[in-house]
Amino acid sequence: MFRKFTYYNTTVLLPPYTTDFVASILANEGVTLSAPIVAALAQFETALTAAGLINYASHSTNIVKILYPMVGGLASTHKYNFLDPRNLDAAYRVTWAGGITHDANGITGNGVNGIGETHFIPNVLPQNDMHNGVYIRVGSNQSSFYDMGAADASRYCGFVASFSINYYSSLNDDEYNFGALGLGATGFFLNRRISSTTVKLNYNGPVVATGTKSSSGLVNTSVAICGLNYLGSPVNFSNRNYPLFTWGLNMSDVQAASYYTAIQALQTAFARQV
């Protein structure tokens, strides 16, 4: 299902999510994404569709629901959800606050007050069927911040890579410590709740840890990126560099590996891979 789209005075055929994304940024921000960016996004979309992670013809069945590819190098282009690029909070466009640096490598927090408000509340997803994921390009072991997350009373939804050398999952629970896995703090981390009692962590494709942690209810606070939204207040600000964030339903181990392959190809096309 390719569509004709004209930019730089040239008509090209693009897959539908890419077409909508490029068109929305042009219409709303006056920014024309470069031909290499558009080509890479088109290949990315094709790979996700082939893996059964997205389906434009049946959007409600997408496994990946929210995806921030952080392209264009500007706050105004980094805010868009690739899978629903309307310029609306209801489409989970990001509202930036504080000290966030925007460039071709994505976003970088200042570790003090920089944060992104996604307007996405995890309670719209099933309690025991969920993923979140983050690609960290530059970062080190830290002991005081979240890569992304939301907290509602004693429940959390988010992820922290290499927090005092440990890796913390939080998907509708009070956090699960996968332990000191020795993975470092960069690469693609995919955090998955596969049942009411089991969570998995994928790192750069394969499963690297499985844990037993019961979910305790849905989180009713919106998710922040580059920090944590704790009961409506931004805290635990990160200073890492992030090219991509993702949220949605759980996926199979095979799909998780395919997701990483597609994401790594996208980052390589932008020369910002780890």
Top keywords for this entry?
274 residues; alpha+beta; Jelly Rolls; 9-stranded mixed β-sheet; 6-stranded antiparallel β-sheet; 4 helices; 20 strands; globular
What are the SSEs and their pairings?
Layout: E1 3-7, E2 10-14, H1 16-29, H2 35-50, E3 64-68, H3 75-78, E4 95-97, E5 100-103, E6 106-109, E7 115-117, E8 130-136, E9 148-152, E10 155-163, E11 166-173, E12 176-177, E13 187-193, E14 198-203, E15 207-212, E16 224-225, E17 228-230, E18 233-235, E19 241-242, E20 244-248, H4 253-269
Parallel strand pairs: 9-17
Antiparallel strand pairs: 1-2, 3-20, 4-7, 5-6, 6-19, 7-16, 8-13, 8-20, 9-10, 9-16, 10-11, 11-12, 13-14, 14-15, 17-18
Helix pairs in contact: 1-2, 2-4
At CATH level 3, the topology is: Jelly Rolls
> Could you tell me the radius of gyration in angstroms?
17 Å
> CATH first level: which class?
Mainly Beta
What is the terminal-to-terminal distance? 32 Å
Biggest sheet features = 9 strands, mixed
What's the number of extended β-strand segments? 20
Amount of helix: 10-25%
Q: Short description, anyone?
A:
The chain has 274 residues and is an alpha+beta fold. 19% of the residues lie in helices and 34% in strands.
Structural commentary:
The protein has helices spanning 16-29, 35-50, 75-78, 253-269, and strands spanning 3-7, 10-14, 64-68, 95-97, 100-103, 106-109, 115-117, 130-136, 148-152, 155-163, 166-173, 176-177, 187-193, 198-203, 207-212, 224-225, 228-230, 233-235, 241-242, 244-248. It is an alpha+beta fold and 274 residues long. It has a single domain, classed as Jelly Rolls, CATH 2.60.120. Strands 4, 7, 9, 10, 11, 12, 16, 17 and 18 form a 9-stranded mixed beta sheet that branches. A 6-stranded antiparallel beta sheet has the order 3-20-8-13-14-15, with helices on one face. Helix 2 runs antiparallel to helix 4. The longest helix is centred in the C-terminal third of the chain and has 17 residues, at 253-269. The mean pLDDT is 92.
